[in-house]
Amino acid sequence: MRSLFIFVWCAVILIFTCVSSFQDLLQLGVLRFRWDAHPTFSDFLSPLPYHLSKGFLLQKLGHIIVFQVLTLLLLVKYKSTCMILIVTAAFASLTEFLQLYFTRGGRAFDVGFDLIGILLALGMAGFFKVNPSQHINIKN
Question: What is the pTM (predicted TM-score) of this model?
Fold first, then answer.
């Protein structure tokens, strides 16, 4: 069952990553994908914008929370925090890179926000020095 939760959460992340307009999905319920076979890879290295709007900050908070939840789900299933860090960081990088192909703005700084969520989850687990699987009764 834990694996199913992890799979579903990753699938949701990928759908939100690849949908052509996240705003259309949220506001209109429209799920559309557009493929760009020749993305502009230099966009990946674009810096943070100078003006950080409330919407932008909420979006980045979403990055943090989504990857924090993913990391917590993995912590419940697996014991190796080092491997969880590697896998989640690689998945975060993949999702941002994929956005370039799906006409979305994949950015390296977004991977940084994802890493904040990952590290927060790992830090919380380390701080409490508790294996979450000992307290959460989810059957395999």
Answer: 0.86
